[in-house]
What does this fold into?
Amino acid sequence: MANIEQDKDWSRRQFLIRTGTVAAAGAASPLLKLADASPWKGVSKSPNDKLVIGLVGCGGMGAANMRNLMEFPDVEVAALCDVDDNRVPKDFADVEKKYGRKPDVYKDYRHILERKDIDAIIVGTPDHWHALVLIHACEAGKDAYCEKPISHNIVEAVSMAEAVKQHKRVVQCGTWQRSTKEFTDAIDYIRSGKLGKITLCRAWINDSFRAGRQKPTTPPKGLDYDMWVGPAAFLPYQSNRCHWNWRWFMNFGGGLSTDWGVHMMDIALLGMSKDQDLVMPTSVSAFGGQRAILDDDRTAPDVMDAIYDFKDQNFSMHWSIGQDHPGKETHGTEFVSADGRTLRVWRGGWKILDPSGKELPKEEAAAPPNHWRDFVDCVKTRSKPRADLGSVAQTTIVCHLSNVALESGEMVKWDAKKHDLVGKAGKNTLSYRRPYRKGYRLPEYRPSA
Ligand SMILES: NC(=O)c1ccc[n+]([C@@H]2O[C@H](COP(=O)([O-])OP(=O)(O)OC[C@H]3O[C@@H](n4cnc5c(N)ncnc54)[C@H](O)[C@@H]3O)[C@@H](O)[C@H]2O)c1
It folds into this structure.
């Protein structure tokens, strides 16, 4: 384990050999054995035992997830990891106070994965690191709470879903809207058929974020910027594309199509599906780009209209990023029925409108369980959580497809059975597959047909 920090070769085999989970290169399926020995599958843990977790990425959402999990008496935080010393541990005094001991602090997440006492991790890094951290966690036999969008591109999403499946891990994703009442009420209502046949779904987000203009500077002391960049293409440090701001740069994120699309289109897809196994589009076209926010460093589109055709289910979906969506919340999802009724849902409420805009009566269902409690319970019972990674991979792929269509300028087609684009259209885009920086390699998993 010594010298992990010096070791910049992140290839899967190197990692596994070093951590001792593979006895010899090429040994037969040792990883599956590891996953089968999951604590709550065997005899070593009881339902009352604590779920011991480590946080990877101690920024805004990683820390928020950790604190939500700390609400539960059967959870303990044992380790924190961030590539920036400035983010740990100054804001984490409450962790020590609660558990009576300082959590161990690391700069390299592989130290957490090596620890036998840690059952699960939170993946709270920027999007461009999710795939490596999550797949390595699966290979090390850890369960995970993984932030959304699950990946930086389509090939990563497919690999992550397959790794979770093959290693039999329980992974809840950060699409917590799946566990809030306005969204579950709306989904239940659509699934009940009471709005009639749905012909169109709409999802949208407002975008007016400016990253501003900056010149590269020396990274702040304590931040291992080279590791922060990780597998992405190297760009010199600028604070307006590092912490939090990375989401406006396609080199590190997917812009609002993935950042918010994964929340809002997720609701449309869930409403149109029977369960978590989501309906998938057959073709996608997208138009837009950087049209409104000029003289700015950001590279993510600020205007986008994408049309998805769900030929097999006979409806279409419209995704839009814009500066305004008059008369509506800044974000939301709508279902439009063949008779002109519309169900609109957003964070904080939902309503049903008749074709003239008059509000119609609605029906409420039981409240869903707490999203983070659901994760803990599912780890212990080895069940699928409400935002199971396999399902959120489907939503994430749908989001990436709009970026693939925009980047390629082509109408792209999706083959849900093959988990891949049809033909060549879109395949040369970075939203489909990104080359990793030298020294990093995506452990690629392909589903069997
Ligand atoms: N579910 C939600 O509603 C929601 C809301 C906000 C953000 N998010 C998601 O949460 C994730 C984090 O977003 P954020 O806004 O907190 O970003 P952030 O930039 O504030 O925090 C990310 C942290 O990860 C650290 N990091 C980077 N690479 C690392 C590595 N290899 N190992 C350990 N730490 C590393 C960074 O130094 C930083 O402290 C993103 O995927 C984002 O999309 C989800």
Notes: The mean pLDDT is 90.
